[in-house]
Amino acid sequence: PQIQYESLDYDVCENKLFHAEQRKRLRDRFSLRIHVIRWIIFILIGIITALNACFVNIVIDLLSEQKYKFLKASVEQNVPVNGGDGDLALPYLWWLLLSVVPVAVGATMVTYIEPITAGSGIPQVKCYLNGVKVPRIVRIKTMAVKTIGVITTVVGGLAGGKEGPMIHAGAVVAAGISQGKSTTFVKDFRIFKAFRDDHEKRDFVLGGGAAGVAAAFGAPIGGMLFSLEEAASFWNQNLIWRTLIASIISSFTLNIVLSAYKGLENFTFTGLFNLGKFKEPLTFAYFELPIFMLFGVAGGLLGATWNALNTLINKVRRRFVPWKLGKVAEAVVISIIGVTLATIMIYFIDDCRPLDKERISYPVQLFCEDNEYNAVAALWFQTPEATVRALFHDEEGAHNIRTVGYFTLVYYFLACATFGLNVSLGVFIPTALVGAAWGRLVAMQFLDWFPDAHFLNPGKYALIGAAAHLGGVLRMTISLSVILMETTGAETSFFFPLIIALISAKWVGDYFNEGIYDMVIEESHAPILPWEPVPQYKGLTALEILSKPVVCIKLRDSAHYIYEVLLRCDHNGFPVVDDVKDNRRCEGRVCGIILRSQLIVILLKSLYVENKRFWLPETSIQTFREVYPRYPSIKSVRPLDRKENYTVDLSMFMNPSPVRVNNHDSVPKIFNIFRALGLRHMLVISNENRIAGIITRRDFIYK
Amino acid sequence: PQIQYESLDYDVCENKLFHAEQRKRLRDRFSLRIHVIRWIIFILIGIITALNACFVNIVIDLLSEQKYKFLKASVEQNVPVNGGDGDLALPYLWWLLLSVVPVAVGATMVTYIEPITAGSGIPQVKCYLNGVKVPRIVRIKTMAVKTIGVITTVVGGLAGGKEGPMIHAGAVVAAGISQGKSTTFVKDFRIFKAFRDDHEKRDFVLGGGAAGVAAAFGAPIGGMLFSLEEAASFWNQNLIWRTLIASIISSFTLNIVLSAYKGLENFTFTGLFNLGKFKEPLTFAYFELPIFMLFGVAGGLLGATWNALNTLINKVRRRFVPWKLGKVAEAVVISIIGVTLATIMIYFIDDCRPLDKERISYPVQLFCEDNEYNAVAALWFQTPEATVRALFHDEEGAHNIRTVGYFTLVYYFLACATFGLNVSLGVFIPTALVGAAWGRLVAMQFLDWFPDAHFLNPGKYALIGAAAHLGGVLRMTISLSVILMETTGAETSFFFPLIIALISAKWVGDYFNEGIYDMVIEESHAPILPWEPVPQYKGLTALEILSKPVVCIKLRDSAHYIYEVLLRCDHNGFPVVDDVKDNRRCEGRVCGIILRSQLIVILLKSLYVENKRFWLPETSIQTFREVYPRYPSIKSVRPLDRKENYTVDLSMFMNPSPVRVNNHDSVPKIFNIFRALGLRHMLVISNENRIAGIITRRDFIYK
Ligand SMILES: Nc1ncnc2c1ncn2[C@@H]1O[C@H](COP(=O)(O)OP(=O)(O)OP(=O)(O)O)[C@@H](O)[C@H]1O
Ligand SMILES: Nc1ncnc2c1ncn2[C@@H]1O[C@H](COP(=O)(O)OP(=O)(O)OP(=O)(O)O)[C@@H](O)[C@H]1O
Ligand SMILES: [Mg+2]
Ligand SMILES: [Mg+2]
C-alpha cells in the first residue's frame, strides 16, 4: 500500500487567536522565557542524542568483543596450532549461528513491529526537513526499534554501519523532547506546549539531525553543514546558531561519556566513528592532483554502478518477496552468504603476517606460524569501522594485494545486497570501507610496480578512495568533505585533494543517476522538492500547473457544508472566500486559508456563531494546539444534518495572510517563493483577487 | 554629506524580454554554457583573491623585515652592547620616521583619493550582502587604494591588521570579474554579459567575501560560514557549493604561492594569518569549563567597553576634525603616540631573557647581557600577527607578567584609538592580540600564585582569551570559532571550550551594545535589515508601515508623464497599474512594477509605441543590461515637452510578478518574506487588488 504523504506547514498561521496570544505574551514577558526554553531544548537534544549514540556504540562494542573472542577461541580449539591441517567446519557453524540469530531478531523486529525503521533513516529525515510528513517517522517507538535493530544487525556482522540510524535517532529525540509528549506512551507531560506546531518542530528536527551527525562522526561542523546541505533555503542566523550548539553539545557529551568508558583522560576520544587521526600531516604534490581527480572519476563510476545495482536489486526484491516472513528470510540468507564468503576467503587465501599485538584486536593464528597471524581473518574478525581505520592507518606493506583485492570485491557486492534489506542499517561505513579498500589497493599495486614512487602513501590513498567512493554513492559533497576532515584530523591544506576527489566523483556520478538517498526517496514516491525547479517547468506560468476548481469555504459558512466538504474531499487546505455570488464559492474573493485540522477542531468543539457566548471566553490558540499533531479524522465528528442550522465564522480562525501569487507569474519564480518560505499551500489569484487556483507541493513535482 | 544608499534588486525581473532570452537560450543550449561559465568565474574569484592576498602579505613581510632590521641595527649602534647606559634618542627618531611616513602616505591616499576605503571594509561588504548598495564599494580603484593603504599602515606599525581589507578585496574582485568590465578603467571586455544584474552580482560577491576570508585566515570552511552568517536567508545548495569552492580554491592558491615563496615543500604553509598550529593537542578538564565561561564574560565586558569607547572616540573625531588634512594629521599623531609609548616601555621596563634564536625574529640586546635579549623590544619589534603567534605558542615562563600587563593595557587603548582613523585597517588582529595578551596574563598570574595548577597552560588560555575578546568585540560567533579552529589546528574536542568562551562573550556583550561592525554600520546610517523584525513591529500590520499615496504609472502612459515623474521624485520603483479612473493612478489595479533605471533607458532610447517598428526587432534584455550598473540620470534625457505625444507601453518591460501582500498582513510576516526573497519593493494591495501602498527597505527600519 502506498503511503499517503502529507506536508508540513512552515508558514505560521497568524490568525486572531495567535495575535491574542502574542499580546498576552508581551504582557507576561513570556517572550524571553520562550527563548530561554528553546535554547534549553536544543541543548537537551544534543545531550540525549549523544547518550543514545553512546549506548548503541557501547553495546555494539561489548557484544562484538564477545562474539569475536568466542570465534577466535573456537578457531584455535579446532585448528591445531602448529600448522596442522585443521577443520574450520565447527567455527564456521558457530559464526553462522552468531550472525544469523541477531540478524533474524533485528529483521523480525523491523518487519513486524515498525517497517519504517528499515534502512538508514537519512532519506526519511531528509524528507522531513524538506517538508514532507513521513508517517510515524519521529516516534519514540520508531527510535526504540531502530536502536535495537541497528545493534543486532551490526553485531550480526551485516555489511552496514550505525551512523544513519543515529542521525535518525537524533531527529526523533528532537521531535520527542520539543513536544513534551509521546504518542507511543500516550503521555502528555504538559510542557513545551508553545512549541506544538510544524514550524517549531521542523526547526528542532533540524537541530536533532545535526546533533545526530555530530554524535555519529564526532564532527560538529559537519553536523551543522549536513543540516544545511539537506534543508537550507529558509535558514536564518538564529537557527544556524542553535543547530551548531546542538551539534557541539552532542559531540562534547559523546566525548565525555566515551572517554570515561574507554578510561581515557582529557577527552581525547573524539566521535564514534573516529576514522583515526593521521599522525603525520598529510601532504601532496602538484602532480598528484590529476591522480586525485582520476580517483574521483573512478569513485563516481563505481558509485553510480553501485546505486543502480542496489536499486535494481531492491526492485527485484520488492517484486518477488512481498511477504513479511520472506523479508526476514532474505536478511538471514544475505547474512549466511556473507559469513560463507568470508570463511572461504579465510580458508583459501594464505596470508600470514608477523604479529603486532597493538594493532590487531583479535589475531587468529590459523594455519600460520607462531608469532604470525592470519591477515584475512583479521580483516573479517572486526567491525567494519575498525577495518576502515586499519586501511587508513596501517603502515606500508601491512596488507597483501590479493587479500585486499578479494576483500574489496566481496564487500562491494555484499554491501549492495545488504542495503535495502528489512533491517536498520546505514550505508556510510560500508561505502567508506569499499572506497578505502580500493584506494589502498591501487596505491599498493602501483607501489609494487614503481617502488620509488614514495608519494604513494597507501593510507592517504585509502582516504582519497573513501572520499571518492562516498562522493560517488552519497553525493553530499559539502558535509561529507567536512566530516572526513573532522574525523581524520587532516590538515586544512588537505581539504583541496579531498574536495577534488569528491567533486569529480559527484559530477561523474550525477551524469548517470542520483545519490543513493535520493534514489531511495524516489522509490518511496515522497513528494520532495528539488533545489531548483525542474527544467521542464521553465517558461510555464502558474496557470499551467494550478489545480481548479478550488474547493473553497465562505467566510461565514454553514457547519453542514463544511462537514460535507471534509467528508467528500481530502485536501488539507481550503481557501476562505467572501463576496460569493450564487454560491459559486470557487469564484469568490480570497480572504484567507483554513486548514482541515482547524475545521475538524471547530466542528468537534462546536465553535459555532450561534453558541458563541459559551465557547468564546475559553477558546484560545491552545485549543487547537492540544490535539497537535494527531488530529482526529472527520469520521470522529458527530454527523451534522441539514436541519441543524449552525454557522461557522472563520474570520477568527483562518490564516488571513496566505501567500498569494498571480496567475501569470512564472513557475520558477513561484517555486522559489514556495521553497524559500517553506509553504504548503499557495493561492493563485486573478487580477481581481478572485481565486484562480491552488498550488501545493504535488503540483511542483514533474510527472 | 550623508550617503544616499540605494538597494540591490535580488528579485529577477521576468518581463517579456527576459522570457524571450530564456527561450533563445533553450534553443541555443546556452544554459549549460552559462552554468560552466559561472563555475569558472567562481574559480577565478578564488584564485585572484588569493593572489591579491599573497601580494599584500609578501610586500608587508619584506618591508617590515627591512624596517625592523634597520631599527635593530640602529639600536645596536647607539646603545653600547655591554650593559652601558646608551641613548635611545636616535633609534626613536628613526622609528618615528619609519612609522610616520608610511602612515601619512596611507592616510593621504585614503582621505584624498577614496574615503570609502577607510576602516576594515567588512561592514561595507556586510551591507552589500544584506542588499544595500554602498556607492563605489566594489570598484577596482577602491581595491587599489585599499591594498596600498593597508600595506602602508601595517608597515607603519599602526595597531591594525590586514584581514578586513583582504575580505573587502575579495568582494571587489568578485564584482569586477563577474561583470567583465571596469568603471575605473572605463573598459568593457564584452564578456560575462549575462551576469550583469544585481542578483548575479550579489551571489558572486558572496563567493568573493568567502574567498577573502579563506585567503586571510587560511580557513576555507570559516570563509563559507562567514558569508553564511552575514548573508544567509536566501541561500540554496548551489550557492553554498560555489561559495565553498571559491574559498577552497582561494586557500589552496594562497598555500601554493606562499609555500613557494617561503621555500617550503609540500604546501605546509596554511593561510596568511596562520595563528600557528598547536603542537600538543589542547586538552581540558571539567572544572575548567567555568573558567572558560568567566573568560568569556570578561571578554564580553572588555569588548563591549572597547566598542563603546571606540564609537565615542570616533564621534568626537568626526565632530572636531572634519577637515581632510586634519584626518591625515590624526593618523600621524596616533602613530607617534604608539611609537612613543612603545619606546617608553622598552626604556623603562627591564626584562631580559636568554636568547632563543629560533623564536624571535629580531632580537635586540639593548641593556641586556650577552646571550640575552630584551623581551619588551621583542614584543614591539614585529608585526602584531607574529606577536599573537608568540603569545599562543611560547612555552611557559617565556614572558614576564609586568611586560605583558603593560603591553595589554597600551595595546587595548591604542587599538581603540586606531580603528576609525582614515586609514585602511582591520580590527581582527589587534583584537585577537589584546585577547591573547590578557588571556596569557591571567594564566601567568594564577600560575604564579598556584604553581601546582598545571592545567594553566598559558598558550591555551591565550587562545581562549583571544576567542573571548574577539567574541566580545566582533560577535560573529559561528565563523569566528571555526576560523580559530582552522588557523590553530585545534582538535575537534577543543571546539567546546572555544564556543563556550565565544558564546558567553557574545551574550554578555550583547547586553550592552552591538558588535563593532554593526556599530560602524549604524554610524553610517546604512539601512541594513536585521535578522528578525524589531520587537516594536510585533502586532503591527502592513497598513501601519507602508508609504502612500504611491506614485504609479499606467500600463500605457505618456512619455511626458513618465519624464515628469522621474524628475519630480527619486523613488526607484513604480507600480504599474491599469483600470485607472479619472487619472487617479494611485488607486489603480496593480499589474506589475517598473524600475527607474528601466524607465530611463526607455526614454533615452525612445522606445515608444509610435515608433515601434524601428526599435522592436533589435530590443532585447541586453539593451537594458548594457548600461548596468551605472544608469544615466534623468538629467541626461532630452527634456520632453507636452506637445510630443509619445506613449510608452510598459507591458513588455515591467516586472509582471512583483511580490504583493495584503494590507492586513502582519509586519513580522511580510518582513520574513522581504528578507527571505531579498526584495527591494513590496506592493501592498487591498482586497480588490488595488494598490494600497508600497514598502521598501527603509520602511522596515525602526525610527
Ligand atoms: N482546496 C483545494 N481545492 C482543490 N484542489 C486542491 C485543494 N487543495 C489541494 N488541491 C489540489 O489537490 C492535489 C492534491 O493536494 P492535496 O489535497 O494532497 O494537498 P494537501 O493535502 O492540502 O497538501 P499536502 O498534501 O501537501 O499536505 C494538488 O494538485 C492540489 O493542487
Ligand atoms: N513609487 C513610490 N511611491 C510612493 N512612495 C514610494 C515609492 N517608492 C518608494 N516609496 C517610499 O519612499 C520612501 C523612500 O524609498 P526610496 O524612494 O528610497 O525607495 P527606492 O529608492 O525605490 O528603494 P531603495 O532606496 O531601497 O533602493 C520609502 O518609505 C518608500 O516606501
Ligand atoms: Mg495531501
Ligand atoms: Mg532610495
Oligomer description: homodimer
Name of the CATH homologous superfamily of the domain at 288-324 and 383-523 in chain A: Clc chloride channel
Q: What is the spatial order of strands in the main beta sheet of chain A?
A: 7-9-10
**Share of helix of chain A, binned:** 55-70%
The CATH architecture assignment of the domain at 288-324 and 383-523 in chain A turns out to be: Orthogonal Bundle
Distance between the termini of chain A: 20 Å
Q: Number of DSSP helices of chain A?
A: 25
Biggest interface, residues from each chain: A-B, 76 and 75 residues
Quickly give the structural class of chain A. Answer: mainly alpha
- The first-level CATH class of the domain at 288-324 and 383-523 in chain A is given as Mainly Alpha
Ligands, ions, cofactors: adenosine-5'-triphosphate, magnesium ion
* Beta-strand fraction estimate of chain A: 5-15%
The shape of chain A is elongated
Could you give the count of β-strands of chain A? 14
CATH topology of the domain at 288-324 and 383-523 in chain A: Clc chloride channel
Give the key terms.
mainly alpha; binds adenosine-5'-triphosphate; 703 residues; 14 strands; Clc chloride channel; three-stranded mixed β-sheet; CBS-domain; binds magnesium ion; homodimer
Report a brief summary of the structure.
Chain A has 703 residues and is mostly helical. Among the domains of chain A are: 288-324 and 383-523, Clc chloride channel, CATH 1.10.3080.10; 535-700, CBS-domain, CATH 3.10.580. Helix content of chain A is 57%, strand content 7%.
Please give a structural write-up:
The structure is a homodimer of 703-residue chains. The first copy, chain A, is mostly helical. Among the domains of chain A are: 288-324 and 383-523, Clc chloride channel; 535-700, CBS-domain, CATH 3.10.580. The first copy, chain A, has helices at residues 16-28, 30-78, 89-113, 122-130, 140-156, 163-179, 198-217, 220-231, 237-262, 288-320, 324-348, 375-380, 384-393, 401-418, 428-449, 458-474, 477-488, 495-512, 516-523, 559-568, 596-604, 612-615, 621-625, 667-677, 697-700; strands spanning 6-7, 132-133, 181-182, 187-188, 352-354, 372-374, 553-554, 556-558, 573-578, 589-595, 647-649, 660-662, 681-685, 691-696. In chain A, the strands form 6 sheets. In chain A, strands 7-9-10 form a 3-stranded mixed beta sheet. Chain A has a 3-stranded mixed beta sheet with strand order 12-13-14. Chain A has a two-stranded antiparallel sheet with strand order 1-2. In chain A, helix 2 packs antiparallel against helix 6, helix 7 crosses helix 8 (220-231) and helix 15 crosses helix 16. The longest helix of chain A has 49 residues, at 30-78. The radius of gyration of chain A is 28 Å and the shape is elongated. The two termini of chain A are 20 Å apart. The mean pLDDT of chain A is 86. Chains A and B meet through helix 1, helix 8, helix 9, helix 17 and helix 18 of A and helix 1, helix 8, helix 9, helix 17 and helix 18 of B. Bound molecules: adenosine-5'-triphosphate (2 copies) and magnesium ion (MG) (2 copies).
